Amino acid sequence: MTFIDLVFTFFAGMLLLAGLGVISSRNPVHSVLFLVLSFFSCSALWLLLEAEFLAIVLVLVYVGAVMVLFLFVVMMLDINITQMRQGFVRYLPIGALIALVTVAQMVWVVGPFGPEIFSGEQLNQAVKHGADYSNTKEIGGVLYTDYVFPFEIASVILLVAIVAAIALTMRRREMTKYQTPGKQVKVRKQDRLRVIKMDAESAE
């Protein structure tokens, strides 16, 4: 076993343990921290695969922005953990079935009985590139040529999700005050200003 195999085994084990910690931790803050650890482990695995751009994006975007936002939201919300745990046992068989199906698919793909393209020596041969190789250029070339149509569909779906989130957030509530620009423009001086006449007072 080479040093690369030891590093891969270490980070892969950390990824599995962190994933188990996400779903088994009773504290939501601990679950978020376990998820951050799993992202770091994934970025290390991508570095081993010479996908430096994806590894950096995973750390900067997900760990540096998304997960910090999740952590702030979880810490600011008053979450009733007891109420959340009431339905855990009820949905446990469904979750276990989905987990078994996922593991079976992974074993079928990368296992000894998997397809020919994933079996044999082809699975253990890492692709080596020169010093002038650009991982970002290769990803952009594939993303905007072969997968440009799925990329556009994903962008439209994300746009619809953003609009839906804004629409759900900006719902009118009875106890909330809103500004009406049309009424503000029509306001006259007589409606807002009242002049009161008072007798002058002498300072003694």
Describe this structure in words.
- With 204 residues, the chain is mostly helical.
- Among the domains are: 7-82, NADH-ubiquinone/plastoquinone oxidoreductase chain 6, subunit NuoJ (Four Helix Bundle (Hemerythrin (Met), subunit A), Up-down Bundle); 91-121, no CATH class; 135-168.
- 66% of the residues lie in helices and 0% in strands.
- It has 10 helices and no strands.
- Residues 117-124 have low confidence and may be disordered.
CATH superfamily of the domain at 7-82: NADH-ubiquinone/plastoquinone oxidoreductase chain 6, subunit NuoJ
End-to-end C-alpha gap = 101 Å
Strand % is under 5%
Helix content: 55-70%
Tell me the total number of β-strands: 0
Would you tell me which CATH topology of the domain at 7-82 applies? Four Helix Bundle (Hemerythrin (Met), subunit A)
Radius of gyration: 29 Å
Describe the sheet with the most strands.
none
The chain-level mean pLDDT equals 78
Distinct helical segment count: 10
Low-confidence stretches: 117-124
Cα shape: elongated
